[in-house]
Design brief:
The complex is a heterodimer. By secondary structure, chain A is mainly beta. Chain A contains no helices and 10 strands. In chain B, a hairpin with a 6-residue loop joins β4 and β5. Classes of the chains: A mainly beta, B mainly beta.
């Protein structure tokens, strides 16, 4: 089966710090999606990437689709308390089936 | 608000019972996906329907079943419930199924929290 590694598993940072997380795989994908899940809520789509090398921003969030199509990263700049939650990467290949990472749990100390 | 609705928000029941979870997709979305998320776990894909037909199956138990109706809403039926079935159940929708064109983006509902006692 397809292996998807999301790291780090958890992060505890100070408010105002920048955050970086990534997902890597041995498989090639056509799409990389990044979601955020607040406790007890459904995941919310943050950024969608559809082209290798693509760099996309959404406010303080920036994500890139790796040039090898096997990885992606998500950066959050100047973190704030509401950034707390679990961040998931979810790539998809030709079959359009999303593969879900195990998530990066982010805690922000005000 | 994603536009995906799920009912009920919370459900408490006993072992051995059967429950039905309901999902209404975003307007215009033809695909519905069901996921299970146990405490502190990732999202486990259960099943996908596209325009009324089953399109993909994940780790769905035989005690679980789903269907999508002509108006595109979907129901997930969980029977002979066990303590380990306690989890958040999410429904998501997207415009396309696995063989169509367009984006892969899935939009999630708020979830149903099932507690089996």
């Amino acid at each position: 089966g397809q292996q998807l590694n999301q790291s780090p598993q958890s992060m505890f940072i100070q408010e105002g710090e920048d955050v970086s997380m990534n997902c890597t795989s041995s498989s090639i994908f056509n799409t990389w999606l990044w979601y955020k899940q607040d406790p007890g809520e459904g995941p919310v789509l943050l950024i969608a990437l559809y082209k290798a090398g693509e760099l996309t921003s959404n406010g303080r969030l920036t994500a890139q689709f790796g040039i090898t199509r096997k990885d992606s990263f998500l950066n959050i700049s100047a973190s704030i308390p509401s950034d707390v939650g679990i961040y998931f990467c979810a790539p998809a290949g030709n079959n359009r089936k999303l593969i879900w990472g195990l998530g990066t749990s982010l805690a922000v100390n005000p | 608000d994603s536009g995906v609705t799920q009912t009920p928000k919370h459900l408490i029941t006993a072992t051995g019972q059967r429950v039905t979870l309901r999902c209404s997709p975003r307007s215009g979305d033809l695909s519905v996906y069901w996921y299970q998320q146990s405490l502190d776990q990732g999202l486990q894909f259960l099943i996908q329907y596209y325009n009324g037909e089953e399109r993909a199956k994940g780790n769905i138990l035989e005690r679980f079943s789903a269907q999508q109706f002509p108006d595109l809403h979907s129901e997930l039926n969980l029977s002979s419930l066990e303590l380990g079935d306690s989890a958040l159940y999410f429904c998501a929708s997207s415009v396309v199924g696995p063989y169509g064109g367009g984006a892969n983006e899935q939009f999630f509902g708020p979830g149903t929290r099932l507690t089996v006692l």
